[in-house]
């Protein structure tokens, strides 16, 4: 029943079908996404009420002002996500260094922790302002850090967490 010719015809038919789909995809791309150099023209424009008006600018509150009214209790709740890698007992390193008394401590100075070269050589102390900048984006603040954390975007959350770390020395 299945000889070489039947198998060849079947395989040719499948390849032909895929070729038709491939050419149809190219044709659809050409029709719906034409390339006319750098200037793309729309067929029509939808007017949006108030689109030409300038958006209201949101004034950013300085970190010092937010930190002055930070809630260490709220920071303790935020600390739970840090516990996976850090501990609050002096000398108890985990995946990350211990964070007991981190506020005011020199950067890269937790005893017994193997810091990345970038962190070990980064000058200064962990002031509340430095911790704030670090928590926005650790790899953006210290390129080459081992801390694989996407960052904490909310300024109030950062201030609350830092307030908790300052009170939770060990």
From TrEMBL:
InterPro entries: Cyt_c-like_dom, Cyt_c-like_dom_sf, Cyt_c_1A/1B. PANTHER family: CYTOCHROME C (PTHR11961). It comes from Boseongicola aestuarii. Keywords: Electron transport, Heme, Iron, Metal-binding, Transport. This is Cytochrome c-552. The keyword Iron applies. It comes from the Bacteria. GO terms for molecular function: electron transfer activity; heme binding; metal ion binding. The keyword Transmembrane helix does not apply. Pfam families: Cytochrom_C. Residues 70-169 form the Cytochrome c domain. The gene is cycM.
């Amino acid at each position: 029943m299945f000889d070489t010719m039947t198998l060849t015809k079947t395989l040719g038919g499948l390849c032909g079908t895929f070729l038709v789909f491939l050419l149809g995809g190219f044709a659809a791309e050409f029709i719906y996404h034409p390339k006319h150099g750098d200037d793309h023209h729309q067929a029509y424009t939808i007017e949006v009420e108030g689109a030409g008006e300038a958006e209201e600018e949101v004034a950013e509150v300085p970190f010092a002002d937010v930190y002055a009214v930070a809630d260490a209790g709220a920071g303790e709740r935020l600390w739970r996500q840090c516990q996976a890698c850090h501990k609050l007992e002096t000398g108890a390193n985990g995946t990350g260094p211990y964070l007991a008394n981190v506020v005011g401590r020199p950067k890269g100075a937790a005893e017994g922790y193997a810091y990345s070269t970038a962190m070990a050589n980064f000058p200064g102390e962990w002031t509340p302002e430095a911790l704030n900048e670090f928590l926005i984006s650790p790899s953006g603040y210290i390129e080459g850090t081992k801390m694989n954390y996407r960052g904490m975007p909310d300024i109030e959350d950062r201030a609350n967490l830092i307030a908790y770390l300052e009170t939770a020395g060990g």
